[in-house]
Amino acid sequence: MRDSLPGGNVALAELVDLFLADLPERLAAIRAATERADAPALALHAHALRSSAGNFGAEALDRICALLEQAGRDHATEKACATLVELADEAERVRRALLAVRSTG
Amino acid sequence: MTQRILIVEDNPVDLRLFEQALSSAEREVVSCADGRAALAAFEKHAADVVVSDIVMPNMEGTELLRELHRRVPGLPVILVTRYGSIAAAVAAMRAGAFDYVTKPVEIFELQTRVARALERSQLRRENATLRQELAAGFGPESVVAESAHSRALMELVRRIAASDATVLIQGESGTGKELIARLVHYWSDRVGRPFVAVNCKAFAESVLESELFGHEKGAFTGAIAARQGCFERASGGTLLLDEIGDISPEFQAKLLRVLQEGEVLRVGGAEPRRINVRVVAATNTALKDKVAAGSFREDLYFRLNVIPIVLAALRERREDILPLARHFLERFAARAGRHMTLGPDAESMLLEHSWPGNVRELENAIERAVVLTRADVIGAGDLMLDRVGGALHRGEAASTQPPPDPPRPAASAADNDSNHRTSAREIHDVSLTEYLDKAAGERIAQALAKAKGNRAEAARNLGIGRATLYRFMRRLGNEHSYPRRDNDSNGAR
């Protein structure tokens, strides 16, 4: 992405910052939607996080979000509960990786 | 010309990514986080291309697409869908999307597809404008400029077309002010954008404000929907404000503000809208005199008069008369499926006429001659310049160039000018309608005299109804020639 963005490193850093700023809120929204069994909200937030993760090549996070999105679409929020821990772990791994990218700029 | 792209995406990371990928010096990128905001932004300022996510809260991308196409059919919309969701991509295309891209978005792919959509948008605009221009006959090939004045004028128009400066065109009625305004537009970079002409004199002031600036729904009784004004409709193009000298001082102030600020406020609206319009103003009055008289604002005059163009009357550029006449003849004859030429006597008459109605009068004369002349060569009499609308400068051509051919009947030949009815010579020259009118007028006068002004009795004696008598009298202009008798006051009218 870095090479194809017109703004290069600066543009990439801005996107990373946006992602990292949005990440806690997005994780909280997924968790809250799961806890209150709000399937449409779960699908929507999982879809949004999946979309952002895909931009950075975060394939594992993308895959977990896809499972959550599908659970939301299937109105099977109970299935999502088990995935939340995995989601949090993978999100943290991606966060650290992006911070590293950010610092090496 | 700046291209405008509207991006609709609820995910802030994707939104920023799209902005970064699609921004450039020639483009204006507007971003919205949902469909409703996008529709509001689009109504405020239409976009050339819309890039929208499909999955969004409030309004899905496909619904937004339908709403946009209701407003601008054929608008290129690119929908963004998740990788692997073939069904969504198919649905997007079926819904009328120009194209789709999948997430995670490949930046080069997005840029390529948007560039193609922008090209399509530009082509659509250009096609529409060219059709409009060609249909109206304002292509460059339609310009006839033989005189030094006209050639210099065309050169000036070519030079100023490239700029965005305001133009003030002044000239007598019929000299071609709108044609020049269209050429300024047609030969500029704005050619693919709309040309909107509005006659300021044709509207009451309250209506003119709504016509030019638009209005919001409920702004006044009858405003059942929001409506763009001419400034917004001419977005990116050219707006001709014709008869600008006739707007009120109050409206002058409003117009000045719009020109200074570069934004309009719809009637009943709260938020001004940016405009990108080249303004061409036109008037047949000497605006400077109006400024001197205090009826036209000096600051507005200077704002409009950045590039002044003064059009000469046709009588002051006689070298243009015959080329223009031949040009009109070719056009009208072709329309009638005929091949016609101007006879030498017709050409002489055209050159000698004073053309108070300028090019428009010449065009009308030629069209009339094509319609009424059976021969393929138009003679002087076929032009009927001495009979229609008082156009003849009688002191010259009427006395020195009597039409050699019998004049043709014309709908407007009911001319009250007694010069056309009095001499024995003219019995042969006048049209049948005029001749009959003259006879009818004399007969009616006799009947009224005999009946001592009693219309009812005169009508009976003439064998016609009173209503018919009154109609004749009004048409012939002797309505008040005889005093009305009391018992006749309730006569039919």
How would you characterize this protein structure?
The complex is a heterodimer of chains A (105) and B (493). The mean pLDDT of chain A is 89. With 105 residues, chain A is mainly alpha-helical. Chain A has one domain (8-104): Four Helix Bundle (Hemerythrin (Met), subunit A) (Up-down Bundle), CATH 1.20.120. The longest helix of chain A has 28 residues, at 8-35. Chain A has helices at residues 8-35, 39-55, 59-73, 77-104. Chain A is built from four helices and no strands. In chain A, helix 1 packs antiparallel against helix 4 (77-104) and helix 2 runs antiparallel to helix 3. With 493 residues, chain B is α/β, with parallel strands linked by helices. Chain B has four domains: 3-129, Response regulator (Rossmann fold, 3-Layer(aba) Sandwich), CATH 3.40.50; 148-312, P-loop containing nucleotide triphosphate hydrolases (Rossmann fold), CATH 3.40.50.300; 318-407, Orthogonal Bundle (Helicase, Ruva Protein, domain 3), CATH 1.10.8; 413-493, Arc Repressor Mutant, subunit A (Orthogonal Bundle). Helix content of chain B is 46%, strand content 13%. Chain B has 21 helices and 14 strands. Chain B has a five-stranded parallel sheet with strand order 2-1-3-4-5, with helices on both faces. Chain B has a five-stranded parallel sheet with strand order 7-8-11-6-12. In chain B, a hairpin with an 8-residue loop joins strand 9 (263-264) and strand 10 (273-274). In chain B, helix 13 (321-335) packs across helix 15 (358-372), helix 19 (432-450) crosses helix 21 and helix 20 packs across helix 21 (466-476). Mean pLDDT of chain B is 81; it is low at 387-429 and 486-493. The interface between A and B is medium-sized, with 20 and 21 residues.
